[in-house]
Amino acid sequence: MALIEVRNLVKHFPVRGGVLNRVVRKVHAVSDVTFEIKSGEILGIVGESGCGKSTLGKALIRLHDVTSGQIIYEGDDISRMSHRELMPYRRKMQIIFQDPYSSLNPRLTIRALLKEAIKFHGVLDDDPQSIDDYIVELIKTVGLRADAADRFPHEFSGGQRQRIGIARALSVKPTFIVADEPVSALDVSVQAQVLNLMSNLKEQFGLTMLFISHDLKVVEHFCDRVLVMYLGHVVEELDTMNLDAQVEHPYTKALLGANPIDDPDDRRPLTVLKGDVPSPFDPPPGCPFAGRCPLVQDRCKCEMPPLAPSAADGHMVACWEIETTNAATPPVTAPARA
Ligand SMILES: Nc1ncnc2c1ncn2[C@@H]1O[C@H](COP(=O)(O)OP(=O)(O)O)[C@@H](O)[C@H]1O
Ligand SMILES: [Mg+2]
């Protein structure tokens, strides 16, 4: 069953300028995105820096207003709810950020910052002893020692701070967690430990997750299914099982061939791809990947291919070449007719 359904979601950021401070142009951060997240699954979003992953993740839990489209959470359309109407949903939908240090108040001890979240959302009755017990239990759940409660965020390593970020998200008993590049800033050796923790907690608490990453290899190991984004569009959606053999979109293939980037500050372009990513201010009418695509045809430059089912079950791809190939030749898996 779908926990969240996203229909035709669009998010533009207006950019103001000039003496009258008028809207002079818009960043097309997320363009007409449709998908669902099943209860209990980990859905990945992958794509290069700036393609709209964080915007989509934040819009989904209404940390951004949406420009158009719908977000249906457990059957309720939350896309246009006011701040007050959103309150009951805020607790259920939590987010973990890439850089836990900037999202943890440096002046609060771990105990104080967890207490703040617990009290704000009224998770427990206002009994100091039971709140304290709950905090110690949470800290142990994320693999830290109980004495961490009375220390400050700067006293911890990056991996430990991400554990604290996870504890804070868990503290309010959420159903759904957006993890926005949660391990991208960590050393490779620490990444695996934090991913293991998240995977265990997901099972233990029956969570549903949206996991954002620029690294398709991490997504492949951690997620059940993945959406591949390019300049605000989802260009492919597929299961992560047997990913290498399943991938169809030329952009996803390029991502698979790309060298993993160990250093998050090193925003190298993918070496296998030539050509520029179009501007998000003035996206082209056709496929946004056309300028870098090895399969490009004339049609790709003027008409955006829709995300459509490909040969494999549950697999969706937005590419004129793959669609036309499928239309011309029946898929090999189709039963032979006598
Ligand atoms: N608050 C904002 N105001 C204006 N533009 C934004 C804002 N946040 C993101 N953008 C722009 O939207 C696009 C998508 O950004 P983002 O969602 O952060 O991408 P990603 O997470 O994939 O790196 C980028 O062009 C970025 O510059
Ligand atoms: Mg981001």
List the helices and strands and how they pair.
Blueprint: E1 2-17, E2 22-38, E3 42-46, H1 53-60, E4 68-73, E5 76-77, H2 83-92, E6 93-96, H3 100-103, H4 110-120, H5 128-141, H6 158-171, E7 176-180, H7 188-205, E8 208-213, H8 216-222, E9 225-230, E10 233-239, H9 243-246, H10 250-257, H11 298-302, E11 308-309, E12 316-317, H12 320-328
Helix pairs in contact: 4-5, 4-6, 5-6, 6-7
The structure holds adenosine-5'-diphosphate and magnesium ion.
Which keywords apply here?
338 residues, alpha/beta, Rossmann fold, eight-stranded mixed β-sheet, four-stranded antiparallel β-sheet, 12 helices, 23% strand, binds adenosine-5'-diphosphate, binds magnesium ion
Molecular structure report:
This protein has 338 residues and is an alpha/beta fold. It has a single domain, classed as 3-Layer(aba) Sandwich (Rossmann fold), CATH 3.40.50.300. It has 12 helices and 12 strands. Strands 6-7-8-3-9-10-12-11 form an 8-stranded mixed sheet, with helices on both faces. The longest helix has 18 residues, at 188-205. The two termini are 38 Å apart. The model is unreliable at 259-264 and 324-338 (pLDDT under 50). Bound molecules: adenosine-5'-diphosphate and magnesium ion.
